[in-house]
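Because discrete structure vocabularies remain unfamiliar, we reproduce here a specimen of the format, pairing a chain with its fold in token form:
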Amino acid sequence: MKIGTIGTGLIVDVFLSAINKIDGIECVAMYSRKEETARPLAEKHHVETIYTDIKQLFMDPTIDFVYVASPNSFHYEHAYQALENGKHVICEKPFTSTARETKRLKELAKTNERMLFEGITNIHLPNYQLIKEHVNKLGKLKLVQCNYSQYSSKYGALLNGDLPNVFNPEFSGGALADINIYNLHFVLNLFGAPLSVNYTANKHPNGIDTSGILLMEYPDFIAECAGAKDTKSMNFVLIQGENGYIHVENGANGCQNVILHVDDQSSQLNNQTTANTLYYELLVFKDIFDNKDFDRCHELLDYSHSVMEVYETARKTANIVFPADNC
């Protein structure tokens, strides 16, 4: 499984570190607009080829998969071009800017018989699978609370009048897209689509959300997802039922430690042995690829599409508009 990467940000460094832990996966090339930007990362992870022309990356016959970690607004374009050129694709979260874009990618991937995965880590984590196995012990659910807040290193620049990509509507940025998306996946992969969705956001004058609370109504319970890039918090997930609750420490993104509380008894749930959460999603993708399991790939694709539908609905309830909405 030979991979070429698009992007040189921190997430690519983490992704390459995860690759180094898995036999049978190798990064053979990376794309960056400037070679000097990619060179330190390429040397660190022993990647031999750097392309400054993205078409050369897509045409490289040694590459099986393209890993798309460009700014959010480029996810659709880069994934589409990779699929058109016969590559399989792993595309970072948020998958695309709109559900319509996800639908087009899904259709192209199926037509070209290529695999397409969303790089959302938490739903593939061993501890998340433990949560799925134990949530029925809580009895009738009433509340789900998620808070993942991380003061952004770019927020100061925004306050000083600059416009970093992550806070730029032109690049499909914002707190819901960048950080609350983990909470959204955590809830939707457990419980499916809600009856109603409403997102209330703190917004910068440019219209982007710097933090916000997403409220989702289910037939028997309510789920609240808070995400912030303008403040810090004690990150957590609480799933509350009539018989007890599950406490996920440090937030939905990593599921680092899970504590089950039922009938005044508590127990620790932990099957994770590495802190690099991308390691676990790559194990899943490699297994699907090795076994040519397109049914499982398409099942994940359909799920990602359903998440994008809820995400887009939530974004629009807060009147957050991206250029992609008009395409």
About this structure: The radius of gyration is 20 Å. The mean pLDDT is 97. Residues 294-317 form the longest helix (24 residues). The chain has ten helices and 14 strands.
